[in-house]
Amino acid sequence: MNYFSFSKDGRALYCLFFAGVLLSFSTIYSRNFRNSKAVPCQRNVVQGIVSDGSSPLPGVTISLKSNKNSAVITDYNGHYSIEASPRDTLIVSFIGFKTKFIPVNDRAKIDIKLEYDTTTLQEVRVNAGYYSVKERDRTGSIARITSKDIETQPVTNVLATMQGRMAGVNIVQNSGMPGSGFSIEIRGLNSLRNDGNTPLYIIDGVPYSSQSIGSSYTSGNMSSQNSPLNSINPSDIASIEVLKDADATAIYGSRGANGVVLITTRKGKSGKTSFTASYSNGIGKVTRFKDVLDTPRYLAMRKEAFANDGVTQYPASAYDVNGTWDQNRNTNWQKELIGGTADYTNIQSSVSGGSEKTQFLLSGNYSRETTVFPGNFDYVKAGGHFSASHESEDKRFRLNFSAVYAGQFSTLPSVDFTQTSAMLAPNAPALYDAAGSLNWENNTFDNPLAPLNGKTNGNTYDLLSNAILTYDIGVGFSAGGSFGYTSLNQKQQNLQPNTIYNPANGLGSESSSVFTNKISRSSWIIEPKLSWTKNLGKTAIDALAGTTFQQQNADQLINYYKGFSTNSLMENPQSAVTNTILNSNESVYKYQAFFTRVNFNYDGKYILNLTGRRDGSSRFGPGRQFATFGAVGAAMIYSGEKWIKDNIPFLSFGKIRASYGTSGNDQIGDYQFLDTYSASAARYQGISGLQPSRLFNPDFGWETNRKMELALENGFINDRIFTSVAWFQNRSSSQLVGIPLPGTTGFASIQGNLDAEVQNMGIEIAIRTVNVKSGDFSWTSSFNLTSIRNKLLSFPSLEASTYKNRYVIGKPLNLVKVFHYTGLDAAGSYQFEDVNKDGNLTAVEDKKTIKDLNPKYYGGLQNQFRFRGVELDFLFQFVKQENFNENFGNPMPGTMSNQPSGVTSHWQNAGDMGPYQGYSDSNAARRTTNTRYIQSDAAISDASYIRLKNISLSYELPKSWTKSINCRLSVEGQNVLTFTKYKGIDPEFKVSGFLPPLRIFSTSIQLTF
To answer: Which residue of 18, 305, 347, 914 could cross-link 22, Cys pair, CB 3.0 to 4.6 Å?
Structure first.
């Protein structure tokens, strides 16, 4: 459990959390004390230093037993000063340590030594969305990481900070390009739709749309710049909680089927105003290249291929082997095209402080990333974060406000050279001629850098704000409301001038074209709620009821302009000869809900949690717009039983919990149930008409997910060893997909609820250990492991549907059907199993071998070492899986394309085992067998890996050197080492042909004063 990283740290950790914020607190509280009503006894100043036995502890709270409102906080040096009477008692408390009660006994100086206490971590409150809950009282499954885990990583996307750190949460990076998106699965795939498995994101209480931004027209073939979460600066995050089971997600109803990601940003703290600034700079490079042929082996392959085809006179187009290109030239194109060094710069600053009643925080950030491609391209992000909170004098009224504003500015290219770099002939000509211009080598070379003569740019502006008001009515009742607003605007351009083409084609600016994309998306949400707490003897009741009103407006316009008098006018749309609207879409989404929660806690041992939600969505038709979801969660803390304490003294904490309930899914898009029409390209008398694009389905309703979980949590030896084991089963039904229709209807499908059911069943294990804890040195470890089995339980009439070649009942959703490769025949060609024995290989009848691309298990192992001012933190991520290998998508060996070096083990003479078939440049039969080969199980292999995902080494300079300034130096690495037998570029990567995640190293300095 990663959230336990809050405890058992030395001076460096506590200084990091409380640095700057806590300075002069003692002065503030002392002034408050002097202005308060005096007690009858004479009061004297008591002072001293609080430490853990070796190092002073800043941020420790010291109050008086006689008057708990009189309190002070230790400063950077652990020093405190408080007025107390001779008969008073000091109450000394600090998270991670046992609370101490120390009689004053007429002493003026009292130095205090605190003892570590891991069990206090059970009192840490976890964000559960509409409410918070103590860790020990939690009945649902919630994974958590904090700012301490986030700040050690040189990343700019929120999801990157979660990789390998949470059980049940599988995250894969889509590209190594700056600003790229991430795929996330929480406890497996629930929906048959690829876009129906995204979790709900809540940022400071406001739902944040996860719909992709950007367009393939303006982004080209780049798998990047599509994650809206790029707007959130990781350094502004205080914690991330992931809700997984029914008990945790049912209160979000229709939006919780795929889990909920709660992101809480930093808040201000009372005390002297403090300023923090940090600067980091780093570099990024591709972790490794594909092992391909050099020129001698490549030319040998090509010559053998022509010999096998009976060709003695090389074709005029075989420039690589017929002497047109220099046959002594040997270029590693991967180093040329993707072997550059990306630069990373990140600047952060914040100011925070406030009084006991009002606190604030204002922060700003700037980051710039370049690419490993040739050319000057960058991705810049700048933004600000503001947070303010206020509490009335009588502590009945509270106001919390937060706002995040970010701008993203991209000049990234619209092409990715990764696939080209691995396939370009090693003796291909130079990229530039002697004059420094693009080299076309007498029209024999398609220069891969030609698209860089174009220009792409994109600007994205994002605002997220929220205000939370609460008022204590009295007698246990509290009323409040959350008011949120988000706005996103994006403009993109993709300029393709005639200069991206070979000059020999004779194309002028009349062939130049421009694609533009404009997106505008805004939403508001209002959530009033009423809560009630009551203690009835040993039973504590906590109830909550509320309602949600939300609306989202979105529109997108994609234009295509062509034909310009000069390329200098390409950014002026009026200069184009033709203007075509490729897409114009406007939508409104309305959502309303009522939710409730009732929690019963008896004697601190037996807990029952009931949640329910009634949801209404505009995405469904009349009579189907509303649905009800709910869950029940229960927990028993058995470690408090007397017989446990007497017989198992080393068990410090024990809890068993279970939950069952339902949540839903409406991630289908807007207006899917309606008859809709779109503009027709055909015109009558110059007027565009309309054509039907979708059929009406009045029975279009909710997708439902039923969730069940059973978990056991144990702490041993004062929680120095803490374990959690959870078994879960999720079943998703009424799948929202396109139901196939006969061709006579004029439509391929109609959107509806397919009577198919998907199951995810698995186990999660999390272990945290405090291996060593002394005054100067500490070592803690965290381990998580997840194993999930995804299965399609039922699909009526599957064999009669268009999905018959995609899914198999009893098998996972993320499967591929492939040919079964059986070896080489006597002539050296690939052979495959003829499943139906008809002597003819077809995809429909003979692609019956099933390969599961879901991870069999995944997890992470994190270690944290601290010695005085030095901290070392590293995380190993591991995945057991199969993936497409270097054979997938590979052209036939022998053609004018470079190959993996493994093709040298190929058939040449009768009896050779290969594994690759004989070379050929144009043999039709071998081209066919190669096509089947890359669609067979030979193109899928083990892609398991262990990766040193993150490592951070930091040092906090001694206060004797820096005086009143807190200075922290650190070195960080991301994707540092990978241990795998996989032969492709990167085993994590799921998308072929795109740049894999980079290895990044950075250094940083942080100052607080």
So the answer is: 18
